[in-house]
């Protein structure tokens, strides 16, 4: 006999958690299905452990920049112990009370669609539950690390974000394939613990989708910490040398790099295989297309949120999408407005915090865009935040409409600066109106005065 719920959410990562809680709060009988840990990739293998690993090095670096303090060092054992506390030793027991408080039915096991509004859940012991959704099924299955088609790479089972964020010891030598967010963050973290780190990136620069000024600052920061960067270098092959306990990565120019640990950090792939998508006319293994209301076209009962829809692989965007679904099922206007690239932070040293398109991306999209550049380190607040560190900032202005469409901040602890820019971009606040508000003194927010100067031209 089928067990009926109003809504069935598959995947208990941040997006699924928020969605289930919102739906249950609206009085819908809600089931949440998870095959691994409640809290998902972000809580246990990505956002939370990676930021925990990065924080000690960033704090030590900032402490050393303060006059009169010169002996701040990272203690790896203590740092890893703290990381384990953050991820609760890979135990999700602390995540369960809110499930009970919200009246959500938690089912553990592999879920797959079995036709319209039907879900089959197979538990680890083989028990099978057949569920029926009276109103909606929400897919929130996330993404996993994509292993690039480098000959021999898959055979040696490289580490991914999961292994490198939960490692119990500092690798003597660490080789990271990929210079995107995961690559630069993990290079930063483990170099601060004493690992010899090399990053291989086939593009000409790191974090190539961000402003070039950000790429340069992050590259300088990594080099200053002893990280070797191989930019514009493609991997041609990989193998394991068991006699010496090391991995070998061959580059396209024939050079071979050797390290005890090799990490693949070259992108993500949707976790949509084995989900039964074929039973509702969708293709397994692909990103799930959705409209702005997160519905799958042609299937008013099926939604997809978070990484699995491929729109924005960011935890906060998945949580925002969850709210859209809840609004849609409550009969309220529900659509995710497109503000270009959403807010994002790279927790390197220096950090990069950005919203919207880069200058090049804005111009490519047909916007009459102009860059208004500033320096956080030349404000009064820069006297003690990131002292001695170049901290560029860029505002991207639509000249025709005189509104802010993008912004990038680079420097220590700039993550908290970007939300003000996000509000200005989302609200299409005129630059002339922004110029009427004085940023507080003495803070690095005085960089916003560059827009006031621009508005006076």
Short description:
This protein has helices at residues 14-25, 40-45, 47-65, 76-86, 96-101, 161-165, 181-192, 212-224, 315-329, 359-364, 418-426, 431-434, 449-455, and strands at residues 3-10, 30-34, 105-108, 110-113, 118-122, 128-139, 143-145, 173-177, 196-201, 228-231, 235-241, 246-251, 256-259, 261-264, 268-270, 295-296, 299-304, 344-346, 351-355, 369-375, 392-398, 403-411.
Question: Low-confidence spans: pLDDT under 50, at least 5 residues?
Answer: none
Oligomer: single chain
Annotated CATH homologous superfamily of the largest domain: FAD/NAD(P)-binding domain
* Percent strand: 25-35%
| Structural classification | alpha/beta
Number of strands: 22
Largest sheet: 8 strands, mixed
The CATH architecture designation of the largest domain is: 3-Layer(bba) Sandwich
Core attributes:
alpha/beta, 457 residues, Enolase-like, domain 1, eight-stranded mixed beta sheet, FAD/NAD(P)-binding domain, 22 strands, five-stranded antiparallel beta sheet, globular
Could you describe the 3D structure shown?
This protein has 457 residues and is an alpha/beta fold. It folds into 3 domains: 151 residues, FAD/NAD(P)-binding domain (3-Layer(bba) Sandwich); 114 residues, FAD/NAD(P)-binding domain (3-Layer(bba) Sandwich); 112 residues, FAD/NAD-linked reductase, C-terminal dimerisation domain (Enolase-like, domain 1), CATH 3.30.390.30. Helices cover 27% and strands 26% of the residues. The strands form 5 sheets. Strands 1, 2, 3, 4, 5, 6, 16 and 17 form an 8-stranded mixed β-sheet that branches. A 5-stranded antiparallel β-sheet has the order 18-19-22-21-20, with helices on both faces. A 4-stranded parallel β-sheet has the order 10-9-8-14, with helices on one face. Strand 21 and strand 22 form a beta hairpin. Helix 3 crosses helix 7. The longest helix is centred in the N-terminal third of the chain and has 19 residues. The protein starts with a strand and ends with a helix. The mean pLDDT is 96.
């Amino acid at each position: 006999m089928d067990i009926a719920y109003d809504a069935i959410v598959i995947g208990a990562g941040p997006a699924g958690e928020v969605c289930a809680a919102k739906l249950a709060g609206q009085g819908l009988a809600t089931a949440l299905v998870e095959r691994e840990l409640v809290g998902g990739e972000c809580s246990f293998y990505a956002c939370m452990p990676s930021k925990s690993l990065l924080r000690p090095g960033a704090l030590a670096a900032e402490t050393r920049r303060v006059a009169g303090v010169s002996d701040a060092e990272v203690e790896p054992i203590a740092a890893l112990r703290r990381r384990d506390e953050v991820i609760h030793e890979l135990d999700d027991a602390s995540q369960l009370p809110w499930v009970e408080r919200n009246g959500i039915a938690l089912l553990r096991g592999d879920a797959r669609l079995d036709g319209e509004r039907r879900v089959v859940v197979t538990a680890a012991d083989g028990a099978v539950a057949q569920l029926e959704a009276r109103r909606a099924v929400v897919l929130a299955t996330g993404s996993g690390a994509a292993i690039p088609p480098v000959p021999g790479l898959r055979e040696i089972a490289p580490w991914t974000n999961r292994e490198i964020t939960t490692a119990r010891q500092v690798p003597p030598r660490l080789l990271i394939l990929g210079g995107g967010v995961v690559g630069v963050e993990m290079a930063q973290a483990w170099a601060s613990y004493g690992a010899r780190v090399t990053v291989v990136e086939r593009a000409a620069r790191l974090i190539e989708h961000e402003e070039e000024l950000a790429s340069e600052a992050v590259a300088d920061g990594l080099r200053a910490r002893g990280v070797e960067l191989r930019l514009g270098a493609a991997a041609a092959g990989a193998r394991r040398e068991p006699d010496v306990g090391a991995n070998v990565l061959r580059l396209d120019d024939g050079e071979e790099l050797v390290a005890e640990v090799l990490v693949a950090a070259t992108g993500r792939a949707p976790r949509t295989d084995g989900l039964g998508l074929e039973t509702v006319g969708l293709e397994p293994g692909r990103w799930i297309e959705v409209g702005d209301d997160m519905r799958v076209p042609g299937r008013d009962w099926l939604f997809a949120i978070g990484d699995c829809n491929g729109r924005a692989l960011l935890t906060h965007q998945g949580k925002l999408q969850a709210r859209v679904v809840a609004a849609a099922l409550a009969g309220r206007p529900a659509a995710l407005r497109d503000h270009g690239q959403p807010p994002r932070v790279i927790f390197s040293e220096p950090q990069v915090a950005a919203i919207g398109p880069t200058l090049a991306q804005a111009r490519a999209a047909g916007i009459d865009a102009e860059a208004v550049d500033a320096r956080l380190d030349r404000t009064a607040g820069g006297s003690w935040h990131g002292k001695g560190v170049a901290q560029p900032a860029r505002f991207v202005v639509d000249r025709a409409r005189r509104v802010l469409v993008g912004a990038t901040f680079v420097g220590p602890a700039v993550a908290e600066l970007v939300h003000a820019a996000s509000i200005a971009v989302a609200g299409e606040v005129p630059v002339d109106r922004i110029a009427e508000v004085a940023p507080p003194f003495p803070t690095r927010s005085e960089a916003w005065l560059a827009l006031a100067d621009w508005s006076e031209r």
